[in-house]
Amino acid sequence: MARNGLPTATTRTTGSAGGGVGESVPRPDGRLKVTGEFAYSSDLWHEDMLWGRTLRSPVAHAEILALDTTRALAVPGVHAVLTHEDLPTAVRHYGLEIPDTPVLARDRVRHHGEPLALVAADHPETARRAADLIEIVHRELPLVTDESSALAPDAPLLHPGRTDPHAAHVPHPNVVHRQPVRRGDVAAARRRADVIVRGEYVFGMQDQAFLGPESGLAVPAEDGGVDLHVATQWLHADRRQIAPVLGLPEELVRMTLAGVGGAFGGREDLSMQIHASLLALRTGRPVKMVYDRAESFFGHVHRHPARLRYEHGATREGRLTHVSARIVLDGGAYASSSPAVVGNAASLAVGPYVVDHVDVEALALYTNNPPCGAMRGFGAVQACFAYEAQMDRLAAELGLHPVELRRRNAMSEGSTLPTGQRVDSPAPVAELLRRVRERPLPPARQWETSEGVDVRQLPGGPSNSTHGEGVVRGVGYAVGFKNVGYSEGFDDHSTARVRLEATGGEPVATVHTAMAEVGQGGVTVHTQIARTELGVSRVILAPADTRVGSAGSTSASRQTYVTGGAVRNACALVRERVLELGRRRFGAAEPAWLSEELLLADGKVVTAGGEVLAGLGDVLGGEAVEVERAWRHRPTEPFDPHTGQGNGHVQYAFAAHRAVVEVDTELGLVKVVELACAQDVGKAVNPLSVTGQVQGGTAQGLGIAVMEEIVVDPATARVRNPSFTDYLIPTLLDTPPIPVDLLELADPHAPYGLRGAGEAPTLSSTPAIVAAIRDATGLALRRVPVRPEHIAPG
Amino acid sequence: MEFLRPADWEEALAAKAAHPGAVPLAGGTDVMVELNLGLRRPERLLDLSRVRELHEWETAAGSVRLGASVPYATIMERLGHLLPGLALASRTVASPQIRNRAGVGGNLGTASPAGDAHPALLAAGAEVEAASVRGTRRIPVEAFYTGVKRNALAPDELIRAVHLPVADGPQQYAKVGTRNAMVIAVCAFGLALHPATRTVRTGIGSAAPTPVRADAAEEFLAGVLEEGRHWDTGRPLASSAAAEFAALCAAACDPIDDVRSTARYRRHAVGVLARRTLAWAWEAHRARPDAFEGAV
Amino acid sequence: MHVALTVNGRPLRAEDVWEGESLLYVLRERLGLPGSKNACEQGECGSCTVRLDGAPVCACLVAAGQAEGSEVVTVEGLADGEELAPVQRAFLDAGAVQCGFCTPGLLVAADALLRRRPAPADEDIREALAGNLCRCTGYETIMDAVRLAAARRSEGA
Lengths: 794, 296, 157
Known about the structure:
The complex is a heterotrimer.
Chain A (H helix, E strand, L loop, with lengths): L29 H6 L14 E7 L5 E7 L1 H4 L4 E5 L10 E2 L6 E2 L5 E2 L5 E7 L2 H9 L2 E6 L6 H5 L23 E9 L2 H7 L2 E9 L11 E6 L5 E5 L4 H12 L6 E5 L15 H11 L3 E4 L2 H7 L2 E2 L2 E9 L5 E11 L7 H10 L10 E8 L6 E2 L6 H19 L3 H8 L19 H10 L9 E2 L2 E2 L17 E14 L8 E11 L2 E7 L9 H13 L3 E4 L17 H28 L5 H4 L2 E4 L2 E4 L4 E4 H5 L4 E8 L18 E14 L4 E12 L6 H20 L33 E4 L16 H18 L5 E2 L3 H4 L3
Chain B lengths: L1 E3 L4 H10 L4 E3 L5 H6 L7 E4 L9 E4 L2 E5 L4 H7 L5 H8 L4 H4 L4 H7 L7 H7 L2 E6 L2 E6 H4 E3 L2 E2 L6 E8 L5 E6 L10 E8 L4 E7 L9 H13 L2 H4 L5 H13 L11 H24 L10
Parallel strand pairs in B: 1-3, 2-3
Antiparallel strand pairs in B: 4-5, 5-10, 6-7, 6-10, 8-9, 11-12, 12-13
Helix pairs in contact in B: 3-4, 4-7, 9-11, 11-12
Chain C lengths: L2 E5 L2 E5 L8 H8 L18 E4 L2 E4 L12 E3 L12 H8 L9 H14 L5 H7 L11 H17 L1
Parallel strand pairs in C: 1-5
Antiparallel strand pairs in C: 1-2, 3-4, 3-5
Helix pairs in contact in C: 2-3, 2-5
């Protein structure tokens, strides 16, 4: 079905002209990216630079008795070898929420791949050889690998003597954080239920698998500080954690965002930032560090694997009576963002449905497994897989179409969440489901062509494992919702500096933020907002760095909302000042300056009626108007630690999927034929870009549905597949057409009415695919990824 | 590390004789992975890319002499009519980029049970041409695999070519992986009908310590075809015979549980692939124009 | 050792090359051409795809010494001066670039595909580019881009 180059996605534009909000403006960094000139963090080079290398623990849990670096130091070309002993200050731990992660392990390692020592050398091979020569003397300790070993009365404690804010309320020191959500009377509601379904679900450990490896360049400065060029999601949070370890005031840690090759949550925590800085300050030379793919699997946190136990009750009419759930997330050895992931899992546990009687408990464990933290969807993904499976089972019990059961229980604007929070913006759950359901189905048996069987359209693809034998089609639906922005009372803000000046008589806007562009297109959006707000065509983006205030994290679907909001706000302030300047300059001579409502459009000051008063160049003259201002979304509240009640979230994103799959039922191989998505984005600030976000998120949900999983050996807690040979992400032959239907129901509280968009599609894609596989096979399939042997064990 | 760059085959053999520990490097798609990730640090690399003969093939006396470095892309695109089973296997090798570099010599040298070419080589009845300064010998491929990632080469030997009979009947190849492209085989199966000798040969990949043939299955099927005069008549195969063949192929496996799959699944999947590939091959055999003129 | 080769039409020479280095390392770290990317260095992602004597290959799996005397085309060599190649323009217009780390390899592979097959069917595109992983786009816009480049090439012809 070649469509001769026309984008397949449904897009809508508002008709505003000139590259502003609502248009599919091309990326400002696009040309550099297609010519190979865009400088990613692994592309950096500096005269005299050294290469850094990390030695990592070969075992998951051990007491470190000694690290002998003598032989490593003797290798010609080695300039430094650092261990815990060499750290310059008493601050030797870092962490996003809880500083529990050692910069370099001292006397104990808690997970496979934990950093032990650093080497700087003149060539990566020299550094690698030297690191291999460091002798580790260790004694292995008993492992904590799951809930039962973590919560046993005599369990080894991962972090004895905890003093973090969650320590006081957790039931066991190996629980990082626990959040109940209780509403109504579940026991009474259960008695009213005509149908009850119970199930336990398992969600495997997913990796962000961004393609650009952890990397960067640290350059020691003459003032004793360090200039750090890295790929990260939040410059200022990095700096807050880095500076104390280096013993430097924050202003001497100057950070600049290098090109980021994808993130998806995996760059929220630090990786090589402190290590490269330590080596640079020690050697007095610039130090470059680039992880290889194997090290990358140890260099960042993963999506929490989870066990989820659910009970859903409903009346014969298909109304939910109650939901109870227990969600156990494996946080691994260090806290990372586990507490916030728990908050999301708990508060979003029942999905986008109206349920008056709820009893939910979510918790994260400390174990000796790899640390887990942020990944696209952040706690909402695991829950969505489970509650949507439950909804399908209820529908089957009640003899209802899965979409019909969901429609009858769908939340909408005005609904109350189990946390007691009222939904005060559009919540088109039923409409999204209707849209994906009503799409025509892709034709059957597309593999039958005039030239015979096209195996590429069959499960197994070119591997030629079927010519249609055993192949059964299935269709599945799912819907999910995700909070946008940081929740639970966090002071979630961003900062923008906007400057307007005339260059050669032409007005030019410069936008400077510390927002991490990780591929999402935030930079494009900033140019669009500046054009719309300031009526200029030329917009320059200053590099993201720490010379401007914090932009917060490129996480939680928040940047278009929050940094976009900050840019819009700063533009509005600039506009006011420019108009003020004009009034001062021209108001006396031309009364319209004082009497009319004035706008900036097409590089001019115009009245609301369209009369041109002056060119911006004339208004500005030689002056530049510049504003830097922080901007916040409306505040949220923490959840009550016992009941989970509270207005914890600021906004929600909604997406629904319909998956069509073909399953080789004898071999258990799956071909996803189509993965249609409908999503409400509030306002498509850049339709092409937001459609790309929806498709990309959808594909990551496909990955965990049928192939992706970090496999940890339960006997050793060692990762068995740290490579792209055995950690498989979808290829072009695995990923089907992803038609996208965008709704734009404005959220009145958000800039331009927009909704954060990046994460929601990652939620519902996975359960829709698994529902379709269940439809084709009749199997229960309670675990993702679904592997061939789960469908056809033999 | 020393990088040896022989200009021709004689120089290559001399270098290998002088440095038996030198690691041959051709397409590089196995060796370079180990070098890049620090898993291997040989004293010497023996780069064979300038040895012209390794990139060539010739056909004589009903047999193809396939240079060890002829890339899979070439086998797929240009040798499908002579070596259909190997061409099908070639299409499943990794990615187009890898297929432009990698050749059969690499699969044989590495001798991983998961090498994609092995089942096709076994089914076709290939022989490996190994050479050293001492001379040249031909090793039947089933004797070439001696253990997990071990082969019959002497330390001073290099793989010059593989000899495969030109297909005298339909050949099939099928692989199972957990992704639809660029995937290491969970298991693979090759099958070739040899009407000229009234035999059927098989090859199983990734389901035993080495690539193996399903001898009992081959014998069983040869018997069924003979007794039922299938070769003469082109009659369809009874489903019970196909099922028994599949069961015997599954029984020929000696698989393990690993990060890619389970032993049980591998055995099962080999059976399914055996049944399917036999059906496709036999159908193709029956459908040959003028094959069974006058047959009952 | 040293390695002399032609990259994007220019004869270049790298000195002091360690024998275990790959062509990718030499391009990126010794010849000032970091456009080819280092996402996996095991031939599984295609982000280092270059044309080596005409054929798209993973530069990470070519030993530096093997590239001696060869002709290499990298992403930096696709454009004709300031004029972007059709695949480059199409990737921009179709929104096929997000983080962009897979883009250089995909562009070289897509360009090679269209040189061989000017009007590929969708499944041909999928098979030809299955060796290039993208984690951002879900591939839809990449399909759009290759279709668009093919359509423009045929219009231009």
